[in-house]
Amino acid sequence: MASQIPHAKTQDTDFMFIKLQVKDLDRAVGFYSSVIGLVEMNRLEAEMMGRKVSEVVFMPTYAGGPMFILAQFHDTEAPAANELILGFATADIGGLIARAEQAGGRVLEAAREVPGMGGMQVAFIADPEGHVVQLSQMGG
User: Fold this and answer.
1) What is the pLDDT of residue 93?
2) 122 DSSP β-pair partners
3) 1: which DSSP letter?
4) Which of 31, 53, 63, 102 has the fewest CB neighbours in a 10 Å radius?
5) What gap in Å lies between CA 79 and CA 21, rounded to an integer?
């Protein structure tokens, strides 16, 4: 699916990862593994900007793609849930929504077609901690 999206850059820099801060690392790992199908690559205990953090790194979903990382800072009660919108592409938006609901997620906006995008559908869900996730299914 990602190979359908044009790509370009103007500098010698590549997008490498996104790191999502979570309150409950194990619950978040369970959600993104079972719902999205991400595969855990490794876990690490680190220190970042003087703060202890536990991280789970997932493998890219395609060759050369960016990694998805979940991070739980030890000194933070709960991160904000509206700091970003994650985006995942699927060939079965209905099936992905059903898996999300079964894993404790909730539908924020049901799947709908995006006008002028060749039948592309989008939906918005929230993971169990309230992080917003956009789901996209290409048309045709």
Assistant:
1) 95
2) 112, 136
3) -
4) 63
5) 6
The tokens of 122 are what? Answer: 């989008």
Collapsing DSSP states into helix, strand and coil, what is residue 104? coil
Q: CB count, 10 Å around CB of 43? A: 12
Q: Are strands 132-137 and 121-126 parallel, antiparallel or unpaired?
A: antiparallel
Spatial CB neighbours of 104, under 8 Å, sequence gap ≥ 6: 27, 31, 127, 128
Q: Which two tokens stand for residue 100?
A: 């999300």
pTM over 0.85: no
Other CB atoms within 10 Å distance of the CB of residue 111: 16
Q: Where are the beta strands (DSSP E) in 22-138?
A: 40-48, 51-58, 67-73, 85-89, 106-113, 121-126, 132-137
What average pLDDT does the segment 76-89 reach? 80
What per-residue string of b and e applies to 12-40 under the rule 16 or more CB within 10 Å gives b?
A: eeeeeeeebbbbebebbbebbeebbebee
Task: Compute and round to an integer the Cα radius of gyration of the chain.
Answer: 16
- For 22-56, write each residue's pLDDT tens digit: 999 999 999 999 999 999 999 999 888 788 999 99
Reply yes or no on whether the pLDDT at 105 is more than 90: yes
